[in-house]
Amino acid sequence: MTATSGDDDPLALLHTLVAIPSVNRRLAPDATGETALAQFCSRWLGQRGFHVEWLEAQSGSPTLVAYAVGTGGGRTILLNGHLDTVGVASFEGDPFRAVVDDGKIYGRGTFDMKGSLAAMLVAATRATGSATAADDKRSSLRGTVVLTLVADEEFGSVGTEEALRFLASRRDLHADGAIVLEPSSLELTLAHRGFAWFELEMVGRAAHGSQPELGVDAIAGASALLPALDSWAKSLATGPLHERLGSGTVRVATIAGGVDAATVAPSCTITIERRTLPGEDAATVEKDLRTVIHHALAPISELTWDLTRLVVRPAFEANPHSEIVSAVRSAAEAHQGRPPADRAEPFWTDAALVADAGIPCLVYGVDGGGAHSDREWVTADSVVALTTILDTTIRDFCG
Ligand SMILES: [Zn+2]
To answer: Are 180 and 348 in contact (CB under 8 A)?
Structure first.
């Protein structure tokens, strides 16, 4: 095996990563998916002394677990980044050619999250000193460095789930701390909300529109339920509140019902989204929703309903005093000359799955903007800074 230079440049690598399309196929069916980017990263890491496991339980959505085993007696760190990007249908300019302008690098995925991926790859290589360790694939650190480069974060998170299943089967790769490298403007994201999606199907009885009294109007169920969900939303908004995340929410996302203008609607289906706070679990959230539905619909005789739980993802909350948070905080402060701010996000990330697997973690990544929009950029400075801060963090945590 040939070891490649240890001074890889994260910005040059970012240009290369952007040039390899990795649009999630579950978001854009004609996209090529993550395979080409996974192949590139697998080769890149292999050439630098990392063991690379290729996981692909879902065909066409590969996930990599790469690791450099330590000399022994140190802690294991996990760095997680996603390979996929959202689609490019209306992207301004060539989405797969990174363009530099005034300290910003434009292109699909620069911000979310190939900028962080480039920083993670170069930092892990520098910290493990693998340019000299390639022969026995052993890091110069005491602890082990594990990288998960996952598919499908932008849709169903099958990549992080598959990587965590793999890591759970390998006691030697058990992580003592993790960083999920979603963009965070080089601030420490220590909490975010979870979500739960439900589908409610209400079934009445069709009748001719001229004699509605002979039918059971399923849309009447929706009209009864909407104000009930509204008052639930108001009571959530007033507490109890989370100090960083504020309140949970509930709202109706879709309604579909009725067949034509002259028929009493025999059915009506509603999708309900509940955003949750740390400590709220699927069972409690569903029980509360069932109570609201029961009270709203009970007065409508003969209307039946069925509630299905679609997807439930837990909220995330880090221990601000955990070793991994402290390591990132002090590495960032050493590099930037001031302590990084703490923050919380309204949206969900794979960090909740990592934390749920019992691995202390935080979200920490680049600065920029335009995630999922038609103009996306990352600041070059933040990619370079992140590389240094991750390098320091790895050495501190695993040294
Ligand atoms: Zn992302």
So the answer is: no
